[in-house]
Amino acid sequence: MQKKEVWKSGNMLYPLPAVMVSCARKGERPNIITLAWTGTVCSDPAMVSISVRPERYSHAIIEESGEFVVNLVTEELLERCDWCGVKSGRDVDKFAACGLDAQPAAKLVSAPLIAQSPVCIECTVVQKIALGSHDMFLGRVEAVDVDPSYMDESGRFDLNRTGLITYSHGEYFGLGEKLGSFGCSVRKKP
Q: Which residues pair with 38 in a beta bridge?
């Protein structure tokens, strides 16, 4: 076995979900920021984290409004997701420019959902942690809005049929083929 090279510290935890986070101040135009630094934090209560650079336009909006929506991204939304990550909401209305529809959230006051997203996770900020280059916002999940067209015959939401994408080291990927399911290592083989 070849000895590994040692590099300076950095993040190589890939792939990650590529998401579009929507936010707004009450009475103002909503914005979208593309993030890959997001994740599940807790299941009870349901919580997620997003990490945002303080100089980003959306940072102050999320900090002041205390809410955000994590909108999952499909292959169909890929180019709009990427575009929202390279343009600033200071300069452009991202919803209008991308042909996306802002839909009112069920539980939040200001932050809208992206109607074209198959899953929208409504969050209120419970804590902001300054970490260095990024601040992490811990968000309590207040509601999850799903596209009913992805419900199967038994009434189960089929998330894996939505065509979600991931981000890995500067590139986007589709999820690919199913390789197993939770518990496959201990399940009896037929």
A: 50
Q: Shortest CA distance to 81 belongs to which of 172, 1, 186? A: 172
Long-range contacts of 96-99 (CB under 8 A, 24+ apart): 98/32
pTM over 0.85: yes
Write out pLDDT tens, residues 108-149. Answer: 999 999 999 999 999 999 999 999 999 999 999 999 999 999
CA–CA dist 152, 177 (Å, integer): 19
Distance CA 10, CA 53 (A): 16
**26 secondary structure, DSSP code:** T
Contacts of 20 (CB under 8 A, 6+ apart): 32, 33, 34, 35, 71, 73, 77, 80, 81, 84, 114, 117
